[in-house]
Amino acid sequence: xxxxxxxxxxxxxxxxxxxxxxxxxxxxxxxxxxxxxxxxxxxxxxxxxxxxxxxxxxxxxxxxxxxxxxxxxxxxxxxxxxxxxxxxxxxxxxxxxxxxxxxxxxxxxxxxxxxxxxxxxxxxxxxxxxxxxxxxxxxxxxxxxxxxxxxxxxxxxxxxxxxxxxxxxxxxxxxxxxxxxxxxxxxxxxxxxxxxxxxxxxxxxxxxxxxxxxxxxxxxxxxxxxxxxxxxxxxxxxxxxxxxxxxxxxxxxxxxxxxxxxxxxxxxxxxxxxxxxxxxxxxxxxxxxxxxxxxxxxxxxxxxxxxxxxxxxxxxxxxxxxxxxxxxxxxxxxxxxxxxxxxxxxxxxxxxxxxxxxxxxxxx
Length: 364
Fold this sequence. Notes:
Blueprint: E1 6-24, E2 27-41, E3 46-54, H1 59-70, H2 80-90, H3 99-119, H4 123-126, E4 134-138, H5 150-161, E5 165-169, H6 175-189, E6 194-198, H7 205-215, E7 223-224, H8 232-241, E8 246-248, H9 255-263, E9 269-270, H10 274-277, H11 279-290, H12 303-310, E10 319-321, E11 334-336, E12 339-341, H13 354-359, E13 361-362
Parallel strand pairs: 4-10, 5-6, 6-7, 7-8, 8-9
Antiparallel strand pairs: 1-2, 1-13, 2-3, 4-12, 11-12
Helix pairs in contact: 1-3, 2-3, 3-11, 5-6, 9-11
């Protein structure tokens, strides 16, 4: 295969309204921000990808960094892994986390898309895997709003794609309120489901010791980020005393952060975030670190590309599914019987709905 040569880079931003507003410990959001990348090549294929910087106000800074970093790769044959290493060296003065790493991840995702398209293979196959439905959980609701209406919302979440798993956000005012939310979610589902929980770092360590002990017999699939994600020693203390698995990962900035968490036994499972872990290349390296420890690997957001990566990840567990990007996608991935179906087409399967991307466009 002759690698395509990068000829043009385009960066756009969009602020997309959410069907159900996000209400969590980290904030409330009625819209979700996206930074979208297109890499044109001399092979006639365009590599695409997106990241989600949470707040649209961050988009100009990230887009500027993407353009500056991407300029060094223009007119060169695309070599994603080599570009990632070169990019990490290039951002060292800015810092190998935060905006600089997000920019590199955005480029890396699009580089791999172009590389797979040039080979004529879906990304999962290009990486040595195969196509198959990926078990997923619905993460589009059960936020920290009123308990009223949770049963109806849970019923909608399960029915949306035949899901057998969904996520409930906890860390409410009391243990009783958390237990009531769990009961409402299960009752609304109307059948046995896997219920995963997320605290969004909302508890202090002393609070977490009491609250999680009270929830440890509730049959939850995991406790996600119960306390500050960087407090690895206390995360380890929680993981050691609880029966329910503790999962971290959405805030790992690069594979090195994950390695530190694993070394401290701060979690029983990991969930890399495609933007923060460093794109496709960062994910692959993080997955390689988890495999020797036998740690289950789930995903955080970025359903489409993460679905491909789960097909080449040892210990792959759950794919997080949201529909937040769907309005700006030409063909959102299907969900059948609770699993995401990866389309059999070259690359990562992302194409833009140009009309909606323009309608929700934001300065960057």
